[in-house]
Amino acid sequence: MTKFGLNSNTMNNIFKTLKYFILLIIGLILITSTIFWKNDIPLETLKQKYANTESKFVEIDGMNVHYRDEGIRNDSTPIILIHGTGASLHTWEGWVNALKKEHRVIRLDLPAYGLTGPNPNKDYSQAFYSSFMNDFLSKIGVNRCIMAGNSLGGSITWNFAVQFPEKVTKMILVDAGGYPTKSKSVPVAFQLAGWPVVKNLFKYITPRSIVQKSVENVYADKSKVSEELIDRYYDLSLRKGNREAFIDRMSEFRNKGISADNSGKIKGLSMPTLIIWGDKDFLIPLDVAQKFHADLPNDTLVVFKNSGHTPMEEDAEKTVAVVKEFLKK
Q: Is residue 108, in this structure, part of any structural domain at all?
């Protein structure tokens, strides 16, 4: 008998059970790794599929930034389109096709995403993105612009306007980040990026189903989530460095999101602003749109029924029609 009242046979059985349990866990990890392990896709391979004749690359702070500059070339105040977390410049395709006939439209892959890839300094703070956008616009010769952004891109838009108000003539905020809020539903990829052990495995083990569920999470109409759309999000997530950058950016947001809150300065933005929101956005709920609407002194709020977190992608035709009217004013 041991001092705990267990005999040696009982103790041996407990240790044997623990050993089998540990071996089972290791076996499951090995099997999962074998099935879902995904190597990075070479950048040149991704360029062949996701770059086109309009694609350009510009060197900024050690990054080869992918962007497209389309439409009316002599337009001195172009529209700058900034995508959200996990997305790429392709998310604006519908808007660009509708706007480039009358405007100059510039969109880019932000650091950490698309063909641009990670920031060598691993900085994904709002301060970094504002500084980066200023460097990007200076590099391509844009002094003043109409800036539009979705989610993270929306947050970058108004933060940039706070820092450089003389450079932004109008803003378009599409389900933008801006105020501390509680999400009603979070994409599974966002959740996994916050789990201490899992997030490290996520750099190498990336099931396509996780990407699919994450995209479906931000759409109100799941039938619009096509195989081609999932492939694009999935392929670009496998660009070298993007998975680690995604985790780094989510960690930045979790660790410094509250302390880096800059929303008190939104009230000081006087440029005309269009706020577009999906009423079925459960990641950044509609109450955030109402806060923007209350704080911005010169804004218009348009809410789209049965639309999710990325209405410019989910229903480009209806949302861009509102944008066109806003731009005419």
A: yes
